[in-house]
Amino acid sequence: MNLILGFGSTGASVARYLVRKNEPFLIMDSRQEPSGLQEISQLNPSELHLGRFDPSIISKINRVIVSPGISYNNPVLKAARQKGKIVQTDIEIFLKESKSKVVLVTGTNGKTTVISMTEKLLKTIYGEKKVISLGNIGKPALDALEEDCEISLIEISSFHLELSTFISSSVGVLLNVSQDHLDRHKSLEEYEKVKKKILSNTKLALVGDKKFEVYTKGMIKLLNFNTLFDGHEVLFSGFIGRGWPEHDNANLKASIAIYLALELINKNIDLKDINSLKKIFESSINILKNYKRLPHRYEILGTRKGLTFINDSKSTNISSTLKALESAVEVYGPHKVLLICGGDSKEQDIVELLNGPLDFLKKVFLFGKDSHLIQEIICEEVAVEQVSGMEEAIKKCLDESKKGDVCLLSPACASTDMYTSYKERGNLFKRLVGFG
After folding, report:
1. Scanning 92, 118, 194, 262, which has its CA 20 to 30 A from the CA of 151?
2. pTM given for the model
3. Nearest to residue 358, comparing CAs of 387, 332, 384?
4. Sheet of 63-66, strands arranged across
C-alpha cells in the first residue's frame, strides 16, 4: 500500500500515476481542506486522512511518496524511516522510470529562468517534440512519464533534494548557493549540503562557482559555466543593452553550457576544438536573442510621470535583491533607485543586505512581516520609511521621485505573509502602476 503524504499539485500527479499503475493508495494531509480536494475523491483513494499527521498509519503501508512541502522531520516520515519503509519523491520515481536524458537544475536563484532558456534553445536545435520541461515551470514529472521525449529538463528545489534518496541525471547543474529557506534548513551549511546532492550521481556536472568543483570527484566531466566562456564575453554584451539585468548573463551561460554538455555526452564535440565551441556559442546566442524573459524577474514595465517601474517580485531572498540593486544602480545611476522591500525573511541573515549598494539608493520603502528587522539593519546606510502596504509604497515613490528615477520592487523576502505567492505580489504591483 502507498501513502501520499501531502496533497497539492504534486500529490495529485502522484495519485494519477498510481491510478495508472493500478496501485492502491492512502492520502494524508494536515489540512482539513487541502488544495485539490475535489480531485482527491475522483481518484478513489483507499483511505483519506485529513486534519493531522498520524504516524500510526505506517503499519498499513510499505511506501511513502512525499510532497516537497513536507518537512524532513515530519512525524510520519520519521516513523517510516524507523520502520524501514520506502520513502520517495515524485522526482525519484521519474528518474528511475524515465528513458529520457535528464537535466536537473538547482540553485538559490535562476532555476526557472535557466530551464526556460534551455527549453527554447534545445527545442530550436533538436525539435519541439524532443524536449520537455517538468516541475515548477512545466508539467508535474509523473504526468510526463508516458510521453515519448528524448530530453527532460527538471527544476529541482532544495526541498525535493532534501527528501530524495536517489538522485541521478545525465547533466546535473548547480547554479549558485546563497542563504535562503533557512527557516527550513536551519543553516547555510545545511542548505548548501542539500543542494550539492545534485552533483552526487550525474554523468556531467555543471557548476557556477569554483568552490563546488571539489564535490564532483569521479565525474566523467566537470564544467564551470562561468569560466567556460572566458574570452567570449563580447557575445553577451548585446543583452544588457536590451534591458536585461547583468546577472541574467550567468543564466544565459548556464543554458548554453547545458546544450554543450549534452553534445559532449553524445560525443558530438571535443572541448579542445575551439572553432566548434565558438560556433556553438554564436548559434546559441542567436537563438536566445529571441527569448522572452519571464515575468516578475527584473521585469522593466515602463515609465509613468518620469518614473521607471521594475517588477522583481521573484527576488525572494537577499542575494537576488542585491543583484537587482547592482544592475539598477549601474544602469540608472546613483541615488536614482527607490526600493520597495520586505515580507517574510525566512530567517535569512539580514546583515547581508549591507553587502549591496545601499548608499547609492535614493530611499527604501518597507512593509511586511519582517520590515522592522530590515529597517534596524539598513537605516544607517540609506533613508528608510515604513509604509502600510504596496499601494502606499508606490504613492510615496511617485511623490518623492524626479524624472529619471526608478521604482524597483525587489522584496528580498517571501511573499506569504501577505500574498498567496510572489506572482500575486508582482501582479498587484503591475496593476497599481498601470502596467497590469
Report:
1. 194
2. 0.94
3. 384
4. 47-50, 25-29, 2-5, 63-66, 86-88
